[in-house]
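Hi F.,

I've been meaning to write this up properly since the lab meeting, where we talked about keeping a consistent format for the predictions we share between groups. The idea is simple: the sequence comes first, exactly as it goes in, then the structure tokens exactly as they come out, then a line or two of notes. No screenshots and no reformatting. I'm using this chain as the first example so we have something concrete to point to.
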Amino acid sequence: METEDREPEDRELVRQVLAGETDLFRLVVDRHQQSIFRFAFGLLGKREEAQDLSQETFLAVYINLAAFDSSRAALSTWLFTIARNRCINLLAETEELPYAKIARIENTSLGTVKSRVHRAKQKLQSLLDPEIRETR
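Output, unedited:
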């Protein structure tokens, strides 16, 4: 079944999961896990890292599913975007990937990469602050 053929089904699954039928998320994972794993393995080159990253991707998707906007992108596009960003982050952490190399991978300028990293850190801090306050 082609990805485009799955899009209406994916939208319906997302709707049902958000409506409380959380067990149906397993179908999303079953449907997309192999392609996400292959994508991650292609970027990372290590089977174990690709498996871990695939699991982390689906966990992030599940946690943030309410933020998914099917009018902007297919679920598969959103999944691959999250997986790609996690791969880049992992490479940056494990190999200290310089911003210049990230800029080449993303086909953008060095300044744009630095700006995006800065904004991402700010966003992460704003999201973590309430969590940290709740645990104290």
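Notes:
The chain has two domains: 3-97, 98-136.
The mean pLDDT is 85.

If this format works for you, I'll send the rest the same way.

G.
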